[in-house]
């Protein structure tokens, strides 16, 4: 087995010894696996996240500061890849298909959607659209410059407005 440090290995990879990347993969694969298995149960999904994480690290190796430890950087990549994994698994309902909270059998027409949205203030409309696009409350909070609890309140109130008048008739604009 090799006795090179991570710094030496990274420098070798940067200098064209790309086969040395397998040393990084072998060294950290088990730690990454043990971290992911606590969050994702399907073995194939775990392997996909691991593979994508190492691929992302390899793509970023030219920018990586070899003076810094590899593992924390790698864990940050893994966390980002798991977010992407969960986002891809999240079921979303496109806004133009069904905006009303109650289930409906027939497709919703564009006029109905516009009437529904007209009940909401600008911030509520934006938040509802972002939720329908699959953004998390935290991401919406950053986008709108509001704390996450405020985002929760905005979305809850918007849903209540939509639920209370499913007819699509505007009841005026409130706040």
Automatic annotation (TrEMBL):
InterPro entries according to UniProt? RNA_pol_sigma-70-like (IPR039425), RNA_pol_sigma-70_dom (IPR014284), RNA_pol_sigma70_r2 (IPR007627), RNA_pol_sigma70_r4_t2 (IPR013249), RNA_pol_sigma_r2 (IPR013325), RNA_pol_sigma_r3/r4-like (IPR013324), Tscrpt_reg_LuxR_C (IPR000792), WH-like_DNA-bd_sf (IPR036388)
Q: Which family does it belong to?
A: Belongs to the sigma-70 factor family. ECF subfamily.
Q: What is this protein called?
A: HTH luxR-type domain-containing protein
Q: Does the keyword Aminoacyl-tRNA synthetase apply?
A: no
The alphabetical list of record keywords is:
DNA-binding, Sigma factor, Transcription, Transcription regulation
> HTH luxR-type domain: from which residue to which, for each copy?
134-161
CDD domains reported for this sequence = Sigma70_r4 (cd06171)
* This protein's record includes keyword Transcription regulation: yes
Q: What PANTHER family does this protein's entry cite? A: RNA POLYMERASE ECF-TYPE SIGMA FACTO, RNA POLYMERASE SIGMA FACTOR HI_1459-RELATED
Gene Ontology MF terms: DNA binding; sigma factor activity
Q: Which GO terms describe its biological process?
A: DNA-templated transcription initiation
